[in-house]
Amino acid sequence: MSSAETPVARAGTTAPDRTTPTGETPLALTRRARRTYRVLAAHYPDARCELDFADPFQLLVATILSAQTTDRRVNGVTPVLFDRYPDARTLAAADRAAVEAVIQPTGFFRAKTDSLLKMATALVERFDGQVPGRLKDLVALPGVGRKTANVVLGDAFGVPGITVDTHVGRLSRRLGWTDEQDPVAVEQEIGALFPRRDWTHLSHVLIFHGRRTCHARRPACGACPVASLCPSYGEGETDPQVAATLVRTEARA
């Protein structure tokens, strides 16, 4: 890495009167964050929601199922689930044991079944079976928090939203965009750094990077496209050849 590519200073090495997590000025932080996004977006041109869905209802169901499991595993069960229960009315009337049997591979299937049945019933009773397109209505549904609501709004309705899952939370702190732990606070601080129109795609790009390169336990720092922009460079493997072996392909993510 050349001197021109030296990573920004790590958090904690700057003066006590820091104005941002890394000691940068707010303007410098915003510029670095937006440059980071541009580089990552170019590196992951196919960044998108990796859950398979055909309509807002399917995406809502799939996102609820995605908790504590992989999108690939969710995509493995939803074809059967949606064939049997194509809408909120059929799901609300479904036999609990039958739903559990279908979604069991996703883990926590009893709790997820409970959430799905209650969510579907609420859709029928409150919204005539249709998924609402407003955040306040979505988060009022059983089993639906801000993360799930923002996924549905961004990818099914085209309403910009920041999805703070484990990847987005981890990366936003490693990149020095925030030092908050609370997902709502993280969402607010990230949102202040980017134009609203970028929020949904930004979430996809960060999730792609978190799944493929910036892993929780051993990030592939030496193969990271934004190493020179990251204050956490060095937390993971810095040797380029070793780091390259840690990068996951799309098929494994």
CATH fold description of the largest domain: Endonuclease Iii, domain 2
How is the main sheet built? none
Low-confidence stretches: 1-17
Helix and strand element order? HHHHHHHHHHHH
- Shape, principal axes of CA atoms: globular
Give structural notes.
The chain has 253 residues and is an all-alpha fold. The chain has two domains: 3-43 and 162-246, Helix-hairpin-Helix base-excision DNA repair enzymes (C-terminal) (Endonuclease Iii, domain 2, Orthogonal Bundle); 56-156, Hypothetical protein, domain 2 (Endonuclease III, domain 1). The chain has twelve helices and no strands. It has helices at 26-43, 56-65, 71-84, 88-92, 96-103, 109-127, 135-138, 146-156, 166-174, 183-191, 199-212, 240-246. Helix 2 (56-65) packs antiparallel against helix 8, helix 5 (96-103) packs across helix 6 and helix 9 (166-174) crosses helix 11 (199-212). It is globular, with a radius of gyration of 20 Å. The relative contact order is 0.13. Mean pLDDT is 92; it is low at 1-17.
Short description:
The protein has helices at 26-43, 56-65, 71-84, 88-92, 96-103, 109-127, 135-138, 146-156, 166-174, 183-191, 199-212, 240-246. The protein has 253 residues and is mainly α.
